[in-house]
Amino acid sequence: DTGVSQDPRHKITKRGQNVTFRCDPISEHNRLYWYRQTLGQGPEFLTYFQNEAQLEKSRLLSDRFSAERPKGSFSTLEIQRTEQGDSAMYLCASSSRGSAGETDTQYFGPGTRLTVL
Amino acid sequence: GDSVTQMEGPVTLSEEACLTINCTYTATGYPSLFWYVQYPGEGLQLLLKATKADDKGSNKGFEATYRKETTSFHLEKGSVQVSDSAVYFCALSDQGGSYIPTFGRGTSLIVHP
């Protein structure tokens, strides 16, 4: 399977604990995106990388959230001092724009469902 | 800023009925338009896309036409199946910027046998 993978699929933690999620994009994709999705809503953009550079961060990304993509391949999203409001599905997507004029299309992983007790 | 508005669900249909899920958008540039589908407990899957005015995207019997004059990208299917039950998201992406898509809130489709 050469799609986007995420690990773990489910995470239950207690308030105040730190959690880390991993995303492995499609291998030839140079862009990687993180989103948060709550029940009944569409995905909300958190941050994105082009290769190893983090190019944009949403205002939703508080200072408790940090993301890395150290070698331009897989990425991690860490949430420190989790709060109940952090409970959501965290989605990763990757894309690669080829030649000029080609549409950038994102392919999503299955998501990590976080529950903060 | 860019925005996407979808019809509220749930949309409940009997098998073999016709489906239309409305989607309209507001964008400053010339976006690409997408429909994604999300099955329970899973991530989003790209269903179809269109990159310029009058383009028609199609996949698995679903179609949507990029209508610039009405800023719409309605999803249609002539005969739905129980397996089409899912949440459908309309999205746009400004291809001249950071490519970060803007999603609608999603429309839940429930198909009964």
What labels would you give this structure?
heterodimer, A: 117 residues, mainly beta, seven-stranded mixed β-sheet, four-stranded antiparallel β-sheet, 11 strands, 48% strand, globular, B: 113 residues, six-stranded mixed β-sheet, 0% helix
Give a nutshell description of this structure.
The complex is a heterodimer of chains A (117) and B (113). Chain A is mainly beta and 117 residues long. Helix content of chain A is 0%, strand content 48%.
Oligomer: heterodimer
- Mind summarizing the main beta sheet of chain A? 7 strands, mixed
User: DSSP strand (E) fraction of chain B?
Assistant: over 45%
Helix content bin of chain A: under 10%
Discrete helix count of chain A: 0
Range of helix content of chain B: under 10%
Distance between the termini of chain A: 33 Å
Number of β-strand runs of chain B: 12
What best-fitting shape of chain A do the alpha-carbon axes yield? globular
Largest interface: A-B, 27 and 24 residues
What is the number of helical segments of chain B per DSSP (H or I, 4+ residues)? 0
Uncertain ranges of chain A: none
Helix and strand pattern of chain B: EEEEEEEEEEEE
CA-CA gap between termini of chain B: 41 Å
The sequence of SSEs of chain A as H and E is EEEEEEEEEEE
Going by helix content, strand content and strand pairing, the class of chain B is mainly beta
Give a quick account of the main beta sheet of chain B: strands, pairing sense, barrel closure: 6 strands, mixed
